[in-house]
Structure formats: C-alpha cells, structure tokens
Amino acid sequence: MDADELKRLYADGHRDFTGENLSRLKLIGANLVGINLWGADLTGANLAKAKLWGANLSGANLAKANLTRANLSGAQLNHANLRGAKLQYTKLYGANLTGAIYDESTKFSRNFDPISRNMQKF
C-alpha cells in the first residue's frame, strides 16, 4: 500500500489498517486521527507533523520512523517498537507508552523521561 492509497481509504472512512505493511511511507502532515495501526509495520516511515491523536499504534513497528512534531496525544503506543525513532517535539499527552521499546538511538524531546512512561530500553 502506498501513501496515496492509505490517505484515500482514510478519507473514505476506512480506519482499520491492522498489520499493514506501511514501511517507508511518506505521510508528512497527514491527518490520520483515530486510525488503527495495531501491529502495522511503519519502519522508516515519515510521519513528521502527522495528526495521530487517539490512534492505536499498539505493537506497531516504528523503528527509525520520523515522528518529529507529530501529535500523538491520547494514542496507544503500548509495546510499540520505537528503536531509532525520532520523537523530538512530539505531543505525547495522555499517550500510553507502557512496554514500548526504545534504544540509545531513539531521539526524544528534551526532559522527556521514558522510564516514567513505563517504556523499556533494549
């Protein structure tokens, strides 16, 4: 599936993209509020400035994804793979990050404490 198809399906009311392979898609600034990406492969995807509040990204692979300035308020990111992801200036208010995996190459905003959000370092 490419970025245009995903945006078209979303605009048509489709919200469930469980387990889809969306690796390396360019979705900069995309409006994907409330989308279900449970277990989806978003490896290397560019989601900078995307509107993803209330999205379900539980178990999603977001390794090396760019989430800079994305809005993930209220999103479910429990057990997501965030190794090497860019999360600078990302809005994570009320987001569930329990069990989300990160590593030394994951980039967080200044003063963000992954341990206090129940994340796991690997």
Outline the structure in words.
With 122 residues, the chain is low in regular secondary structure. It has 1 helix and 4 strands, in the order αββββ. The strands form 2 sheets. A two-stranded parallel ribbon has the order 1-3. The protein has a two-stranded parallel sheet with strand order 2-4. The model has no long low-confidence stretch (mean pLDDT 98).
Topology overview:
Blueprint: H1 3-11, E1 86-87, E2 101-102, E3 107-108, E4 120-121
Parallel strand pairs: 1-3, 2-4
**Sequence stretches where pLDDT stays below 50 over 5 or more residues:** none
Number of spatially distinct domains? 1
Just name the CATH architecture: 3 Solenoid
Rg calc? 13 Å
Structural class: little secondary structure
Bulk shape: globular
Helix content: under 10%
Q: How do the helices and strands follow one another from N- to C-terminus?
A: HEEEE
- CATH topology, which one? Pectate Lyase C-like
CATH superfamily grouping: E3 ubiquitin-protein ligase SopA
Q: Could you tell me the strand content as a percent range?
A: 5-15%
In whole angstroms, how far apart are the ends? 30 Å
Query: What is the count of β-strands?
Result: 4
